[in-house]
Amino acid sequence: MLVAAAVCPCPPLLVPEVAGGAAPEMDAARAACYDALGVLAAARPDQLFVLGPAEPSGRGPHPQGTRGSFAGFGVPLEVSLGKGEPARRELPPSLAVGAWLLERTEWTCCPVEGLGIGEPLTRARCEETGRGLAARADRVALLVMGDGSNCRTLKAPGYFDERAAAFDAEAARALGSADTAALLALDEELAYDLKAAGRSSWQTLAGAAQGADLAGRLLYDEAPYGVGYLVASWS
C-alpha cells in the first residue's frame, strides 16, 4: 500500500555540477525536493520506487545498484540507485536525477528500485502500473520524477504555447491536493503537445494512491526556464 510520495522535477540542471554558474537559480527547487524526501523517510516505508520518464532504452525496471551518469551533460559525475551490484545498463536521466537526490539526502530507509516510464504510456496503463507498485509491499513510497510543460515562455525549449500555464496550474492543483481523479483526467494529447514529461509519472502515482487516502502539499511551483517545475509531498 502506498504510504507516501514525493513529486520532484527531473532536469539535470537540478544537479549543481551540471548547472554550473546557474546553480543558484534552482536552490529553492532543490530545497523543496529535500523537504519532500524528508516526508518519505518519515513514513518508514518497506520499499521505495523511483519512477520517471524514459526513452525506449531506459524504460522498464532498474534494480537497486543501477548506476547513472551525467557525462552526457558535460560533467563526469556518476550516481547509484542505492547500494548494490551495478546493472548492465544505465539509469535514464530522470532516474539519475532521482538517484542524485537520494544520495544527497543519504537515503538508507529501505530498499530502492527504479522504473523508467514511456511518456506516451496511456492513462489506463499508468494507472495499472501504479496499482501494481502499491501492491509490492505493505508500506510503499514513491519518488516521482517529472516536469510540467516545456512551453511557458518564448525562450522555453518548446517555445511558447498559450495552453501551457493552464495545464501546469491544473497539474499543480492536483498534485498539491493529492487529487488522483484530477491527475488521471490530465489530457494525454495536450501533455504530449506541451512536452510535459511528468504526465505519465503523475498518472502512475495516481494509480498507486487510489484508496490510500493521502493528503498532499505543494512545495514548489515555478517555471524558471520556461518549463513547469513542481514539487509536492503526499503522506
Automatic annotation (TrEMBL):
Q: What is this protein called?
A: Class III extradiol dioxygenase subunit B-like domain-containing protein
What organism does the UniProt record list as the source? Streptomyces smyrnaeus
